[in-house]
Design a protein that fits this description.
The protein is built from 14 helices and twelve strands. The chain has helices at residues 30-34, 47-52, 64-111, 191-195, 198-201, 276-283, 305-310, 327-337, 342-356, 371-383, 401-416, 428-434, 452-456, 461-468; strands spanning 125-126, 180-181, 236-247, 250-261, 265-269, 291-296, 299-300, 312-315, 389-393, 420-424, 437-442, 445-451. The strands form three sheets. The chain has a six-stranded mixed β-sheet, sandwiched between helices. A four-stranded antiparallel β-sheet has the order 4-3-6-7. The N and C termini lie far apart (62 Å). The structure holds adenosine-5'-triphosphate. Adenosine-5'-triphosphate binds next to strand 4 and helix 6. This is ATP-binding cassette domain-containing protein.
Length: 486
């Protein structure tokens, strides 16, 4: 299901800002049409009458009465042309407005919103914790600078630039731990174009069959060249283009291009320090890229972070939870801050607690949870608003095998109903078993991506991973470990 419409949540209603659909033929503006037929000049120049297209060619020897008649004729034709031109333009405008409204309604519907308010376009954002205005307040429409995106590096930004003690999973777009819009009109990745991008409305067609056919990296290894699939492609729900991020002299992500299609269960694997967390943080709006763009369901994450985050559920790498709340309270706030009503949140909380085996822990402080329980409550918070895309950084880390199976089953059902999961993990077996697609990231670049079979070829995923990651290094000089100190 989609996130319920928050009363004051920003609504991506497309105003009539696109170039109206031109009437067929040589469409021109009313002014342009009327201009040639402007009142003839008093002198006998040929231009006006000729332009009007009807008056006889003036002659300098024509009598004054004839000239007056020609002038009246030209003026009448000009007025008539202007009127009919204006009428056509009105009709075209009306058609364009209707089309824009229809697209906006479709998009709003896909976002679970009602079309009632102007578009909110954020011009730039800083990674700062803040609490969004109450969702009942109308959002302020800010004119977007349509200048192409020019991303500014934030030199000292942490890997997970979420400085508050709340999980990004609960960092609802309209709630907390959000990137804060500022007046600094820097990072605008053509947000208005995104709003009406085709894939923004061509989403959420519930899929019956498992997702197939994902194209990804531009750096595909020859060995992993995929066989051509004849199955229809589902819409792209996540698109990374030229994503880059450095921390000082450390290049964490060196230009990633990736596409994830709807209904994919997509695994991201890579050695320690390969850039997985950095990439996922940029996808979810927690870390600003130095360059490149991220689109989620056609919405530019850094151009319109609030709209994008509304449809994303996040389990970040470093959990920062409001751990002085009980599990039930944390779930409750995660839900209501996402715009759900209390009854819905309670129902979903009970379902999630049962699914994750947290029923008995709901009334205990999260601070007292074990690592695995903490992971599970954070995961539950990421899911409670039923996002379209789940981005999970190491979701199974510390989770016991039984819970892992339960979580896996939940995620598989979610994917089967049209949701999309992107997760990172070091568990090659798990990725191979659970995911239908995988990308192997090494030193900030995607070295292979595609379906599991495409990437692993004749090998196991682990073998392929080790091969791409540079092979195993034999530990030498460790003999001292075998001569025990005591
Ligand atoms: N806030 C930061 N400041 C400086 N360097 C950072 C920061 N965050 C990440 N890095 C560096 O960026 C590189 C990629 O880190 P990242 O956390 O994305 O790797 P990873 O693939 O998630 O690793 P792991 O599997 O160990 O979790 C590493 O070299 C890391 O040291």
């Amino acid at each position: 299901m989609s996130t319920p419409a928050a009363p004051g949540a920003p609504v991506r209603k497309a105003p009539v800002r696109k170039t109206p659909a031109r009437p067929t033929g040589t469409a021109r503006t009313p002014a342009a049409r009327a201009k040639p037929a402007a009142p003839p000049r008093a002198d006998n120049s040929e231009a006006p009458a000729t332009s009007a297209g009807a008056a006889p060619k003036p002659r300098t020897t024509r009598p004054a009465a004839a000239k007056a008649t020609a002038t009246r004729t030209a003026t009448a034709k000009a007025e008539s042309a202007a009127k009919s031109s204006a009428a056509r333009a009105d009709t075209a405008k009306a058609r364009a407005a209707k089309a824009a409204a229809t697209r906006a309604a479709a998009l709003a519907s896909s976002l679970g919103q009602t079309v009632a308010e102007p578009i909110v376009v954020e011009t730039a954002h800083v990674e700062t914790a803040h609490v969004e205005p109450p969702v009942s307040e109308p959002a302020t429409a800010k004119a977007a600078d349509s200048t192409p995106a020019k991303l500014e590096p934030i030199v000292d930004a942490p890997a997970v630039a979420d400085p508050v003690a709340v999980p990004a999973s609960t960092a609802a777009p309209a709630t907390n731990a959000e990137t804060l819009p500022t007046d600094d009109a820097v990072t605008v990745a053509a947000p208005e174009a995104d709003i009406e991008a085709p894939q923004a409305v061509a989403v959420r067609a519930p899929r019956k069959a498992p997702a197939r056919s994902l194209r990804a990296s531009t750096k595909r290894s020859p060995k992993s060249a995929p066989p051509v699939s004849d199955e229809p492609l589902t819409p792209v729900v996540l698109s990374l283009t030229g994503l880059k991020k450095s921390f000082g002299n450390t290049v964490a992500v060196s230009g990633i291009d990736l596409e994830v299609r709807e209904g994919s269960f997509y695994g991201i694997v890579g050695p320690n320090g390969a850039g997985k967390t950095t990439t996922l943080s940029m996808i979810t709006g927690l870390l600003r890229p130095d360059a490149g763009s991220v689109q989620v369901h056609g919405i530019d994450v850094w151009g319109s972070p609030i709209a994008a985050k509304r449809i994303i559920g996040v389990l970040p790498d470093r959990l920062r939870l409001f751990d002085r709340l009980t599990g039930a309270q944390l779930l409750y706030y995660s839900g209501v801050l996402r715009g759900l009503d209390g009854a819905t949140v309670r129902k979903r909380s009970a379902d999630l607690a049962a699914a994750f085996g947290l029923e008995d822990a709901l009334n205990r402080l999260v601070a007292d949870y074990s690592a695995g329980m903490t992971k599970k409550i954070a995961l539950a918070c990421a899911m409670i608003h039923s996002p379209r895309l789940l981005v999970l950084d190491e979701p199974f880390e510390s989770v016991d095998p039984v819970s892992a199976v339960n979580v896996t089953e939940i995620l598989q059902k979610y994917v089967a109903s049209g949701g999309t999961v992107v997760l990172s993990s070091h568990g090659m077996d798990l990725i191979q078993r659970v995911c239908d697609h995988v990308a192997i990231i090494v030193q900030g670049a995607v070295l292979a991506a595609g379906t599991i079979d495409e990437v692993r070829g004749e090998k196991t995923l682990e073998e392929r991973f080790i091969e791409l990651a540079g092979g195993r290094k034999v530990a030498e000089g460790m003999e001292w470990l075998h001569s025990f100190s005591d």
